[in-house]
């Protein structure tokens, strides 16, 4: 595999290896979730939005838009498809009866969980090999990467909206 480094950046061999592995991890994660999406009869965006809903609990369309970076219009379409497929239900917000929240449908969750059992077991085996200090460092790195990715997504959205 070729190592296409950015020409304006001087990297150590270790830095290049880390970047290469991050790219590989990203690509494999996308392909893994695409496969899961296909098995669930969803597209990849709907599947990842469902993951946010499952992790965040009941959310409004606006909250889901903030979590994902999608427009509220796109999120409404996602929720419509997820509801039609039986993965989520709409319900009145217990704190504000004028608002609607979206929450996981128990039947949908029961269908999804078994697909992740093996990868969760494998992940737990990997992280059990590291010390608490190692895991704290890894966690800090992942959090920084996640924040950077969100920042870069927002830059791209802002740039695209400025061109419209």
TrEMBL record:
The keyword DNA-binding applies. Residues 15-147 form the HTH marR-type domain. One of its GO terms (biological process) is response to stress. It comes from the Bacteria. Pfam families: MarR_2. CDD domains: HTH_ARSR (cd00090). One of its GO terms (molecular function) is DNA binding. Keywords: DNA-binding. InterPro entries: ArsR-like_HTH, HTH_MarR-typ, MarR/SlyA-like, WH-like_DNA-bd_sf, WH_DNA-bd_sf. This is MarR family transcriptional regulator. It comes from Paenibacillus faecis. The lineage of its organism: Bacteria, Bacillati, Bacillota, Bacilli, Bacillales.
